Amino acid sequence: MTPADDPARGPRRSRVTIKDVARHAGVSVTTASIVLNGRPTAIPVGAETRRRVLAAGAALAYRPNLFARSLRTGRSHTLGLLVTTIADPFTGEAAQAMDLVARERGYRTILTLSGMGLSTEGQPDSGEHAGYRFVDGMLLIGFQLVGYAPFPEVAARHRGLVTAIANDPELPSFAVDVDAIAGVRAALRYLQGLGHRRFGMIYDPRHLVMRARRAAFDEFIGDAALPTTPGAVAATEAGYFEGGRVAAERLLALAEPPTAIIGANDQMAIGAIYAAWRRGLRVPHDLSVVGFDDIPVAHYLAPALTTVRQPIAEMGRLTAATLIDLLEGPRASSPLVDLLLQPELVIRDSAAPPGIP
After folding, report:
1. CB of 69 closer than 8 Å to CB of 59
2. d(CA 304, CA 32)
3. What residues have CB less than 8 Å from 164, skipping those under 6 apart?
4. Which of 296, 293, 346, 289 is CA-nearest to residue 315?
5. What is the separation of C-alpha 322 from the centre of its chain, rounded to a whole number of angstroms?
6. pLDDT (tens digit, 9 = 90+) per residue, 107-133?
7. What is the per-residue pLDDT across 5-61, written as a single tens digit (0 to 9) for each?
8. What is the pTM of this model?
């Protein structure tokens, strides 16, 4: 019995080639290739011929062989998208925006997890995944873990055709980020205006971006000559939601606990709200909480989370668009300057004057 006759596997189908499409449409292979691959020509293909080729491709369910195309042209029109985790809402929104831009401009993305999540242990080799040998460039999200060397082989292979969101500054790439100092200062100024004087900060020290937000917190407290409480900054490596809970519980157990806590991201701030609830405290009546990111769930909490908004989708779009511009345009003689976007304070319900009834 041949595989074609095997009822368990079903009939084998040979791959539809561009020759099959050309034969079905009654055109030459060259014409079919021009239409299906978007190749520029001195004499444009007529509208009726183009319609027949596209209809034939659809009828035969033609799919281009990206591997063969990359060998022939040196371009696959595919981008590698490498992330540390898909559990983070920030990553999901940014990756979706990247993929949308790629599709709009005729590219596809290959998504791969680094394999390390929020840990630096076991330096992952996902960047050397076989598929990434055939992508035109790399998109990275979230590689700011302290002590982690982010795929130097990938950067070397793609000759600088790497763009990133909040990437490690040692990797030769173009990166889009948000001004952490401006965001933290805006949140603390708002809380100070509400009458707060005892502030707490919770963060994960494994992340360079969170370290920057913690440094901005320290700087603001010093500049404003506010009283400093020992233990008012709590570091945690317990994850985001759980880490926020653990760190906030340490702050709330102080002899003089803060009246306002700022989380280094929204998930940690949500963990702080949960910690307050477990202790019988009301947010914002007994404790004000502010986050950083403005992930979708922040709007739907009760109380809704006051937070520093990062333009996450815009960051993803700019990162992908820049990479494609680099691929399709003349290479600049000087390296690109990283782009620093400005955050926005979104005032909702989780912050109020201290001690309100």
Report:
1. no
2. 55
3. 139, 140, 141, 143, 171, 173, 174, 175, 176, 319
4. 293
5. 15
6. 889 887 765 444 445 444 444 554 566
7. 444 444 445 678 888 889 999 988 888 888 877 666 667 788 888 889 889 888 888
8. 0.76
